[in-house]
Amino acid sequence: MKAEFTIPVVTNIPTTPSVVDGAMAHSRPFVAKSDHQSALGFPEELVEDWHDRALAKMKELLGKYRSLQVFMDSCVKCGACTDKCHYFLGTSDPKNMPVARQDLMRKVYRRYFTFAGKYFPWLVGAVDLTREVLEEWYSYYHQCSECRRCSVYCPYGIDTAEITMAGREILASVGIGQKYSNEIIGKVFKIGNNLGLPQPAMADTLLDLEEEIKEDIDVDVRLPLDNADAEVLLVTPSADFFAEPHVDGLIGYAKVFHQAGIPWTLSSHASEAANFGLFIGNDESMQKVAARIREAALELGVRRIVVGECGHAWRVAYSYWNTLIGPFDFLDPNYPAPQHICEATYDLIQAGALKFDKEQNDDKVVTFHDSCNVARGSRMGNMPGGQFIIPRALIRASCNHFVDMREDSIREGTYCCGGGGGLLTDDLTELRVKGALPRVQALHEVIEQYQVTHMAAICAICKSQFTKVLPFYSLGMDMIISVHQLVGDALVMGSEQ
Ligand code: SF4
Ligand code: SF4
Residue 331: which residues within 8 A CB-CB, separation 6 or more? Predict the structure, then answer.
């Protein structure tokens, strides 16, 4: 794959790069247009009184999120986080060190919100809020995928992702939003999914998939839409409806429900599990996107809500839904609300309701990429570490050949794919390719050692990101695969059980 930038070299021993000042100062995503901004209630362009409004917003956020105030005050510059960010490791830009990213806001915070910064700014590294500072925020708060890896290694638990979210929210509130995320959120408000896919197109796509499955395995597996007799509402990222390899995951979920005899449905009203309101740090948008799911569940009269393979969607569902759109007292109390599709499949396996022919996946040696928002922003199943155990259990149930990557690159320490947090846009290709380096490095090791052929994931963004960036590292885009594709391909269907 040809690139207009230098692709990092994958070495056998991961190293911390020498810093290159300003290496990624040019990287910035397209700014939201006026209609993208107004759809979300933000100013259409940079407001005249941006300085005062930005500081007022910062004051509001410091009051609203106690954690933000604590994070601003508590960094001791120990340096433990400096080499933990994939964007620093891939770009060498010192401003991509988590502590430096935090300091972009901390310097302004000190200037306006601390005694020392107000009267002796030079003593505490405090700076005025200027247009240049805003520009730098825009650039570097869009070089953080809010993956939270750095917070795992910080002795104070400082979460740079929260600071990034606050930075983005302040920027949007003065008229400098990000086009990619805001445009997508606007589509969900209007149509119900990130792609702007209307109901008839969805219905056609699902019918095509049913025909494809019938041709493939000669079983009438249904992918129902707006079925009022369903027990389960499946809410999944809209990429599952057509993108590769996502769609094979959707086929896998359908096969599981079919084989377990569970009446289920998708909804044209809640046709998106993703919630980019999280990425821009805006509670109102996050609530409005999530509300469609409660509305659909009530209208269809379902007893369970299951969430498909999407990392940040699961974080929003697991960690925020109850506050945003709960209570879920209308659902069946015998099931978690919400429940992850991996957890639903895992429970069926434990109950002996599914059988597998693992040999169907014998052409593959599989490894697993833990997605950040699942690994560090949620849990799964009724056990500590379930978010790590359950997806691996599904892979082991459906494959004979599975190996994990290097320990410090998986589970809590997993590396971001490089495209999370609202950065999965072509205007950030250089950042995405470079940010994928640590994961590609760990993948490369298991390819050399164990001849790994596929990397499974349970996140729509990870799947799209790796499909795009793996070829830059001379790896096939089809290496990345849905966990439920493995499940679906090995599942013994019909009465053969
Ligand atoms: S949250 Fe992730 S992307 Fe952001 S600074 Fe920390 S490690 Fe880097
Ligand atoms: S690890 Fe935590 S305390 Fe240490 S420099 Fe990084 S953010 Fe500051």
Answer: 297, 302, 303, 304, 305, 337
Distance 71 CA to ligand 1 centre (A): 14
Share above pLDDT 90 across residues of the chain, in percent, rounded to a whole number: 94
Is the beta carbon of 99 within 6 A of some atom in ligand 2? yes
* Domain boundaries, given as residue ranges, for the chain: 43-176, 185-496
Residue whose CA is at the smallest distance from ligand 2 atom 3: 75
CB 189 near ligand 2, within 6 Å: no
| Tens digit of each residue's pLDDT (9 = 90 or more) over 277-325 | 999 999 999 999 999 999 999 999 999 999 999 999 999 999 999 999 9
Report residue 2's pLDDT band, with 50, 70 and 90 as the boundaries.
low
Alpha carbon distance 258, 164 (integer Å): 42
365 CA → ligand 2 middle, Å: 38
Which tens digits make up the pLDDT trace of 233-249? 999 999 999 889 999 99
Domain 43-176 adopts which CATH fold? Fumarate Reductase Iron-sulfur Protein; Chain B, domain 2 (1.10.1060)
Closest-CA residue to 104 (of 141, 142, 68):
141
